[in-house]
Write a structure and sequence with these properties.
Layout: E1 10-11, E2 18-19, H1 21-37, E3 45-48, H2 54-66, E4 69-72
Parallel strand pairs: 3-4
Antiparallel strand pairs: 1-2
Helix pairs in contact: 1-2
Length: 74
């Protein structure tokens, strides 16, 4: 599923929070498993209420890997 996914460290400019590559991949795997356990399938749409933090990236990648669509709500 993520064999060809290449990520680099992420940082939030305003807060200074950061995740290294290992943390990012771990978060993506955990979130993918969670969404699948909740019944998410290809073509499902997910509303996400944030977009300016690290967690958004992990959720985005997890949902895309399942084949879902992310709709960001500001």
């Amino acid at each position: 599923m993520f064999l060809d996914l290449q990520v680099d460290n992420l940082a939030e400019p305003l807060t200074g929070r950061s995740w290294d590559k290992r943390t990012i991949m771990s978060q993506i795997y955990q979130r993918t498993a969670y969404y699948q356990s909740q019944g998410m399938k290809v073509s499902h749409r997910v509303l996400i209420h944030y977009g300016d933090n690290i967690e958004f990236f992990a959720d985005l990648m997890a949902i895309w890997s399942i084949g879902g669509c992310v709709i960001s709500i500001l």
